[in-house]
Fold:
Amino acid sequence: MLSIFLSASIPLPHRNPKYLETADAAAIRDSIRAVVSVVVPGGQIVFGGHPETTPLIRVLVHGMTPNVRKRVILYQSHFFKTRFSPEVSEFEEVRFTDAVDATLTRVWQGCAGP
Structure:
């Protein structure tokens, strides 16, 4: 079975404006839709949760049959557990990873901007 790792995010409006200004959110959403519609029926998608992409992927697979929905694997770090989108609990296959050291905190805060 084909297995694809999907790495995608849509910049959040409240984060650093430079990310939002340089991204084409519609094109990112369209690309995610295309990948999910082509890969999931016959393969598997593995992705890491993001506040903008997790809900989109959930909507895309919601109407699929249960055996197909199991082909979408969401990895979610405990580091973000206070910020999980509600859709995380709706995925059939969620794999939680341990939070990492303070390095990730510094990186994540650096991406958030001032």
Observations:
- The CA atoms of residues 29 and 56 lie 8 Å apart.
- The mean pLDDT is 82.
- The helical segments are 17-21, 25-39, 53-62, 66-69, 102-112.
- The radius of gyration is 15 Å.
